[in-house]
Amino acid sequence: MRYALGVEYDGAKYHGWQRQNNVISVQEKLEKALSVIANEPITVVCAGRTDTGVSATNQIIHFDTEQVRKDVAWTLGVNTHLPYDIAVAWVKQVDEAFHARFSATARRYRYIIYNSRLRSAILSKGISFYHQALDEKLMHQAAQYFIGKHDFTSFRTVHCQSHSPVRTMLHCNVTRQGDYIIIDVKGNAFLHHMIRNFAGSLMRVGEGLESVEWIKEVLDAKNRCMAGMTAAAAGLYFVGVDYPEQFELPKRHLGPLFLT
Q1: What is the pLDDT of residue 159?
Q2: What pLDDT shows up at residue 199?
Q3: Which of 19, 37, 237, 255 has the most Cβ atoms closer than 10 angstroms to its Cβ?
Q4: What residues have CB less than 8 Å from 90, skipping those under 6 apart?
Q5: Quick one: 90 and 138 in the same domain?
Q6: Looking at residue 257, what is its pLDDT?
Q7: 58 part of a folded domain
Q8: What is the reported pTM?
Q9: Do 84 and 134 belong to one domain?
Q10: Structural domain of residue 114, as residue ranges?
Q11: Active-site residue, selected from the candidate residues 10, 51, 85, 179
């Protein structure tokens, strides 16, 4: 049988999603917990791998097993074997046509910036802090250059292993809720550090260091050295995945935290 799971996690203590030697990953912790409940080794496939320090509110995974368990075993049961910063939110049995990665038609991330002159003690993790005043309206205008199908060489790390730098962005919205600026990006797929590089460049525009049109110049240059800094991982959340309606997967609040 094949099961799909909705998973959320705080990535602060993990070296990303993917299982690796000699470091702690979210995938490793989840597979260990699932294997206890299944009483057999379980390997999971995710919708989109996240980097070191990046969190998720709606990561989607699937796994295959010969074991029959009640749904509560795959949720409450698995959660009892997970650390406090990883949790299963839902489970659904799916047919073999479903694949967490290859069935996905779009992925969505949010980057959260606490934009205040002074830092917050209560929200000292899980968000990015930027003390210079940012104009979110200018950032939103600049972000519209990302929409569509482009070569995003200027916004991926030099260590990115993707064969092609071409991706399609469906939307890139920048809004403000009080002291919080939210960069909300949806695309068919993403490159290594792509959204954090978006954020670092958009903050330069928001601070008035660069013009709105500068983003297009950077995009056209296809040169990583032209773009802004790579923003901190702490503010980035994997918040959603689109799948064909035929799979009827549960829908959850995108998050993160109290954000709509």
Answers
A1: 82
A2: 97
A3: 237
A4: 5, 6, 75, 250, 252
A5: no
A6: 65
A7: yes
A8: 0.94
A9: no
A10: 106-238
A11: 51
Splitting the chain (260 residues) into consecutive groups of 10 residues, what average pLDDT does each group show?
A: 96 93 94 97 96 95 94 96 97 96 97 93 86 97 98 91 93 95 96 96 97 97 94 94 95 74
Report d(CA 155, CA 117) in Å as an integer.
Answer: 28
Give me the residues paired with residue 59 across strands. 7
Cross-strand pairs, 172 = 185
**How many Å apart are CA 39 and CA 53, to the nearest integer?**
30
Element (H, E) at 148: strand 148-151
Token pair 């990015």: residue: 128
Q: Please state, in angstroms and rounded to a whole number, the distance separating the CA atoms of residues 232 and 230.
A: 7
| 242 carries an active-site annotation | no
Name the residue with tokens 């959204």: 195
User: Residues 117, 227: one domain?
Assistant: yes
Asked if residue 226 and residue 111 are part of one domain, the reply reads yes
Residue 131's closest CA among 164, 60, 179, 196?
A: 179
> Both 176 and 79 in a single domain?
no
Q: How far apart, in whole angstroms, are the C-alpha atoms of residue 218 and residue 174?
A: 19
Q: For residue 177, which of 64, 256, 95 has the smallest C-alpha distance? A: 256
- Taking the C-alpha atoms of residue 129 and residue 108, their distance in angstroms, rounded to an integer, is 21
Judge whether 122 lies within some domain: yes
